[in-house]
Amino acid sequence: MRRIIIWVAAIVVAVPLILSCAVWLPLASRGRPYVVRAAAAAPHRFDARTLLVATDADMVGTSYADGILHPLNGAHDAVSRVALDEKTS
Cα 58 to the chain's mean position, in Å? Predict the structure, then answer.
């Protein structure tokens, strides 16, 4: 019985403490973003001659959601190679 009383007391103290922190922390950082990312001074440059693309096309998109493979007749996985010209930016 004593153990139950200690657990109940711990929960009664912990829950309001956790909730108050959950409310106070966003208010304390008001006006500041949660994640600060440094912006690049110059945009990224894509410099390549070839682009390789792997395509997983032999099953429907819901296979990841429901875990059931639904094979599509005539569809095959592929690796494609796309040659890029120098004017591509």
Answer: 25
Separation CA 84–CA 82 (nearest Å): 6
Strands 78-83 and 50-55: antiparallel
DSSP symbol at 59: B
Burial environment of residue 58 by CB neighbours within 10 A (0 to 12, 13 to 18, 19 or more)? middle
Question: Between 31 and 71, where is the model more confident?
Answer: 71
* Phi, psi at 43, each rounded to 5°: -65, 155
Give the 3-state secondary structure of residue 23. Answer: helix
Q: Which residues pair with 53 in a beta bridge?
A: 80
The dihedrals phi and psi of 35, each to the nearest 5 degrees, come to -120, 125
Q: What is the pLDDT of residues 43-80, one digit of tens each?
A: 777 778 888 888 877 777 767 777 777 777 887 788 88
